[in-house]
Amino acid sequence: MAGGTTAERGARPKPASGHPGEGGGGGRFRLPRPRLLITLAAAVVVAGGVLWALYGSQWLRVAKVTTSGTEVLSRAEVESVAAVPLGEPLVSVDTDGMESRLRQKLPRIDSVEVGRSWPDGISLKVIERTPALLIGKGAKFIEMDADGVRFATVDKAPAGVPLLKMSVGRTAGSDRFGTERLMREAVAVRSELPAPVARDTRAVRVRSYDSVTLELTGGRTVMWGSGEDGTAKARALTALMKAVPKATHFDVSAPTAPAASGS
After folding, report:
1. HSE of 123 in the Cβ direction (CA atoms, 13 Å)?
2. How confident is the model at residue 206 (pLDDT cuts 50, 70, 90)?
3. Residue 254, in any domain of the structure
């Protein structure tokens, strides 16, 4: 029997129409457009060029080191410990590791910032510790900063830095305050002194937590007491020295009732 009936022919699905790959085209694979391929290729070339410039070229390699902020330390000493890898790609320099090494091997360094100076330099910005007090050690001196950190031993006492004299005896409650605690108290007292008094202070004597005495030029002394109420004591001492300039002993251990004696 040739062909189907009219009803059968009408029931057959019609061929899919439209562009290739649409509808019943079987989901054919579509090639990327040429413009997209060009963009991707350009991105790969740029990325490769950047990587080559950073790691492979001679343009961005470490060629010089700049050091600033040194006072007691020499630049040569700092740069020797830093061990900057000359000739290496600048981008690969371990700046964090360099900072850690400098602080560890040079305790005089309070802080240091290692930075990249493009296109070919490394910068070392150093801040050294400043001695607040000195501790005698035979014929030498140990420098201690305002945080109580003992960071260096020197042969000669730096000018203007008071000597810490510890003469702690056995008193009631003395077990509560060890040597380290008393040293921190002495440093705290030193940091509270008015500038003129600080310049004239030759020694800070500690007998107990409540007995810190300043030894000034001209045979003058100041009974400071404990490290508490430092700001109030500094104000009282300044006023007392102006009121009784020829006095040789000042007592501000009770800042609300300061006293002076001697002439």
Report:
1. 9
2. very high
3. yes
pLDDT tens for 144-158 read 999 999 999 999 999
Q: Residue 93 is part of a domain; what is its CATH number?
A: 3.10.20.310
Residue 251's pLDDT is 98
Section 83-94 average pLDDT: 92
Helix/strand/coil for 249: strand
Task: Identify whether residues 180 and 229 lie together within a single domain.
Answer: yes
- Quote the CA–CA distance of 8 and 25 in Å, as a whole number: 24
Task: Tell me the per-residue pLDDT of 225-237, one tens digit each, with 9 for 90 and over.
Answer: 999 999 999 999 9
Q: Identity (one letter) of the amino acid at 143? A: E
Report if residue 192 sits inside a domain: yes
How many folded domains does the chain comprise? Answer: 2
* CATH (domain of 223): 3.40.50
Domain of 185 in residue numbering reads as 157-261
Per-residue DSSP letters for the chain?
A: --S--HHHHHHSPPPP-SSTTSTTS-----PPPHHHHHHHHHHHHHHHHHHIIIIISSTTB--EEEEE--SSS-HHHHHHHHT--TTSBGGG--HHHHHHHHHHH-TTEEEEEEEEETTTEEEEEEEE--EEEEEEETTEEEEEETTS-EEEEESSPPTT-PEEEE-----TTGGGS-HHHHHHHHHHHHHHS-HHHHHHEEEEEEEETTEEEEEEGGG-EEEEESSTTHHHHHHHHHHHHHHSTT-SEEE-SSTTS-EEE--
Residues 6+ apart with CB under 8 A from 243: 260
State which amino acid sits at residue 139. A
